[in-house]
Design goal:
33% of the residues lie in helices and 22% in strands. It is built from twelve helices and 15 strands. The strands form five sheets. Strands 4-3-8-5-9-12-13 form a seven-stranded mixed β-sheet, sandwiched between helices. Strands 1-2 form a two-stranded antiparallel sheet. It has a two-stranded antiparallel ribbon with strand order 6-7. Helix 1 packs across helix 3.
Length: 295
């Protein structure tokens, strides 16, 4: 574990506080990069936001706006954002999920939402509850809160088509290693936040109506990578809270029981690669189902 050494002035004895493990149950193959929540609010949450949607990892890294896990303050809180991609070329092309997440974080921090409880049905079914008050949220969402968001935290070669092929291939290898590190990223986080507001997928069409498919928490629970992240949270040794579910800007979020993971199975879920017939532009890609099995 990472350790904080402090001196107790009254007794002059050294006090040691255990904080967070350096080790993870699964290997971390690529560094964990995070964004400050305060910085995210400035960049994307204000009326004069720099961008309406989150920017790619390599652009943020080049501007020095990402922080590695190793460089965080020892008292940092880490939030892992789990969400269903609602576009093929960008995970949140209209910024709906990003804006929803930031707005709810703002409402929790300000006290507009003064209490977050576990889903009522889960409390009745699993016989446990979790209540978080505004006082606790003020501590969780302090100035030392950092966020892991896939598009910003992992290399995205598809977002830089003008780069030389060798550089994009190198980024592709790094992306593969980062994807295999997702369970370790979850374990290093305090808890995951499931962001699942109602959206229309930018590219996916309903095979019957040909209309853009709708996404929500129900469809989130049927996406392979999303379910993998739920299981990673369920098995995480150091999480401080269960998963937090956000479905709208104006509603009250709720805690989701870890036991919900036992209703799901990664192998029976949907994967974008299969829905696109494993053809991405001019490339044939392997199936993600096999990759998740190895993870």
């Amino acid at each position: 574990k990472r350790v904080i050494h402090m001196q107790d002035r009254s007794t002059k004895h050294s006090v040691v506080t255990l904080h967070r493990r350096n080790s993870t149950a699964t290997n971390m193959k690529f560094s964990m990069y995070l964004l400050s929540l305060d910085q995210m609010q400035i960049m994307y949450g204000e009326k004069e936001a720099r961008s309406q949607r989150i920017e790619a990892h390599q652009d943020l890294k080049q501007r020095g706006e990402l922080v590695r896990w190793e460089d965080l303050p020892l008292d940092a809180h880490i939030i892992f954002v789990s969400h269903e991609w609602v576009g093929w070329s960008h995970p949140d092309p209209h910024g709906i999920q990003l804006k929803t997440f930031l707005k709810v974080m703002q409402r929790l921090r300000s006290g507009e939402i003064d209490r977050v409880e576990m889903n009522v049905f889960h409390t009745l079914l699993y016989k446990h509850n979790r209540v978080t008050t505004h006082k606790e949220w003020k501590e969780i969402l302090s100035n030392n809160t950092f966020v892991w968001f896939d598009w910003a935290s992992m290399p995205q070669p598809s977002a830089s088509p003008d780069l030389p092929k060798a550089k994009r291939d190198e980024m592709g290898v790094d992306l593969g290693n980062a994807v295999k590190s997702i369970p370790a990223y979850v374990e290093r986080s305090n808890f995951i936040v499931i962001v699942a507001p109602g959206c229309l997928h930018a590219d996916r069409r309903d095979p019957k109506t040909k209309h853009r498919t709708k996404t929500c928490f129900r469809t989130y629970r049927n996406r392979g990578w999303c379910v993998l992240e739920i299981f990673a949270s369920y098995l995480s040794r150091d999480k401080t809270h269960p998963a937090l579910l956000i479905t709208s800007k104006s509603g009250t979020p709720e805690w989701i029981s870890p036991m919900e993971a036992q209703k799901l199975a990664v192998g029976t879920c949907d994967f974008t690669c299969c829905q696109r017939n494993h053809t991405f532009e001019d490339r044939i890609v392997p199936c993600d189902r096999g990759i998740t099995r190895s993870i």
